[in-house]
């Protein structure tokens, strides 16, 4: 409540925040978590908590009146439609030259993401987090993160036989015929559950096109893993629909945190002030960066490092589709959970996920999300006149990522005698290069913070989310965000508390 004092306040309930909450509570420290999105624990009028990807509704988007679907067009038909403005689950945050997709709600990105749980190849780790001891990460923290997140792998014999992964088998065949490394990608979606979906013995989720706006079954989001265990300690409370707007030193020590309570149209219904001995910024790369940059510029936290706001990257995300021959159908039934990848990082700087298009009809399309090695990094800055934080990303910077993704798909197209799809991202537009799902950086480890996420200039303030990672993880990021948070919180508990 208003005027309260808490030992630890955590801003955000995604991966970094959930790891911090569990470990602090296990160490006996009471924790209060503040989350701007909804709790996502109550069914809507259709009896379901989450909306289906094929039928977006009021639950799907964060304070938008029209959907902003990643695939904007299909066979010439625009897909977006009007929806009531609501504190929905997926935020397509527009920074002018890039759309940054993020999860909103208790569980953060784990509510909306594809669940792909990928540990980077160890040889590439020094490029991801140069100041972190790789041996510790691969011996202790990556295994710990994978175990706690409930990461599992698909049974390859089932993969080989189920109609739901026909699209992935076509992806595998084309990758292998062009001599690329093909790999099965682990996931936090329970593959045993998915096999039961296929057998018709349980309610369907992955096999009913649920993904982007939440999964009603099968997926282990943070609500089922870290956050469930954190709540079970009895020491963790979570305020949903509460947004932190300010953090500044309190006169008696600790920090004053200003929090707005929201209604489901985004309106502010109350403003509360609490004090906290320690504050963990776990609002995601964008959320943490925006708060810190604004606090520094507006005199609330003037001593934050000049590095705050810098080192932001898009993990080189770029999407594309390929048009297959009639003898290569990808299937009307497509599991919404991707479980296949093509690794051409060492030769071409690209790692491509074989992704579903779960439309329910045969499309003869292969669809891919590539993660690429791009040198471009943007910076968040405060625009005082406009009263907002801006990001100086340039749309043209995606060309590097397109070129790297082409190292895979031009070769496959040549080998197969196929072409790119031109209908998915606009009319005659091949590349989905207007967005990222993987924002990283803005409070980079060892620059804006020390080597464990302690923010320079303010004892008791920490960054513990994707903002610590300087722009690229070579693969999908949440396992690395989780493992780094495990490493950092262990050190912080041992030495600061
Ligand atoms: P995260 O974004 O998870 O959590 C931050 C939380 O803070 C949010 O809940 C937010 O609402 C809240 N918040 C922000 N500002 C606040 C404020 N001022 N006050 C209160 N709360 C605030 N990764 C992967 O590894 N495999 C995958 O398959 C995918 N797929 C994927 C698909 C889609 C559609 C998206 C959008 C993302 C992915 N990702 C992914 C990316 C992954 O989800 C992402 O990297 C992590 O969720 C980031 O974790 P963090 O802990 O950094 O923040």
TrEMBL record:
<comment type="pathway">
    <text>Steroid metabolism; cholesterol degradation.</text>
</comment>
<keyword id="KW-0753">Steroid metabolism</keyword>
<dbReference type="InterPro" id="IPR007867">
    <property type="entry name" value="GMC_OxRtase_C"/>
</dbReference>
<keyword id="KW-1207">Sterol metabolism</keyword>
<dbReference type="GO" id="GO:0008203">
    <property type="term" value="P:cholesterol metabolic process"/>
</dbReference>
<feature type="domain" description="Glucose-methanol-choline oxidoreductase N-terminal">
    <location>
        <begin position="103"/>
        <end position="126"/>
    </location>
</feature>
<dbReference type="Pfam" id="PF22500">
    <property type="entry name" value="GMC_oxred_C_1st"/>
</dbReference>
<dbReference type="InterPro" id="IPR036188">
    <property type="entry name" value="FAD/NAD-bd_sf"/>
</dbReference>
<dbReference type="GO" id="GO:0004769">
    <property type="term" value="F:steroid Delta-isomerase activity"/>
</dbReference>
<dbReference type="InterPro" id="IPR006311">
    <property type="entry name" value="TAT_signal"/>
</dbReference>
<dbReference type="Pfam" id="PF00732">
    <property type="entry name" value="GMC_oxred_N"/>
</dbReference>
<keyword id="KW-0285">Flavoprotein</keyword>
<dbReference type="InterPro" id="IPR052542">
    <property type="entry name" value="Cholesterol_Oxidase"/>
</dbReference>
<dbReference type="GO" id="GO:0050660">
    <property type="term" value="F:flavin adenine dinucleotide binding"/>
</dbReference>
<dbReference type="GO" id="GO:0016995">
    <property type="term" value="F:cholesterol oxidase activity"/>
</dbReference>
<dbReference type="Pfam" id="PF05199">
    <property type="entry name" value="GMC_oxred_C"/>
</dbReference>
<keyword id="KW-0560">Oxidoreductase</keyword>
<keyword id="KW-0153">Cholesterol metabolism</keyword>
<keyword id="KW-0413">Isomerase</keyword>
<keyword id="KW-0443">Lipid metabolism</keyword>
<dbReference type="InterPro" id="IPR000172">
    <property type="entry name" value="GMC_OxRdtase_N"/>
</dbReference>
<keyword id="KW-0274">FAD</keyword>
<protein>
    <recommendedName>
        <fullName>Cholesterol oxidase</fullName>
        <ecNumber>1.1.3.6</ecNumber>
        <ecNumber>5.3.3.1</ecNumber>
    </recommendedName>
</protein>
<comment type="similarity">
    <text>Belongs to the GMC oxidoreductase family.</text>
</comment>
